[in-house]
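Pasting as-is:
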Amino acid sequence: MSETKPASRWSLWLPLAIFLGFVGLVMFGLYRPADREVASAMIGKPLPEFALRAAVPDRPGLARADLADGKPRLLNIFASWCVPCAVEAPQLAALKEQGIEIAGVAIRDRPEDVANFLARHGNPFTRIGADDRSIVQLGIGSSGVPETFVIDGKGTIRYQHIGEIRPEHVALLREKLKEAGQ
């Protein structure tokens, strides 16, 4: 009879132990859902100074001062080439119909493309600034399009919604605007 060395016994059980550890981690992840909320470092901070030229001829451009006039509003970051931006267009129209003011920032876009996008999907914006080099976009902590910010009447960012606005997000945005007006 040959004796089995203790080290070789462990090597037989090691794959099973690794597998059971992996199964345990997967089960832990399934029972504890991930937090999908992205905490923006810009919440509670004032918008940086900026003045953007008009993105289309029929709407004025956008400056920080326009967003610090005492009235809370939404600031929507969008682009004509952005498919999710077209998806959120009906929700932006619904918010506008409810009396919510929405300012827009068009990212890296041509005026004719922005005009065509708005003609196809509607124009809920009171002002639209052209951010040709994404300087304002990056300055307010936006990493992509679309993104929507709730701005209070002093020009301070109160909430950031990443991604397209879906029908189920409209009530939340209204609530965040109401909080920003208090």
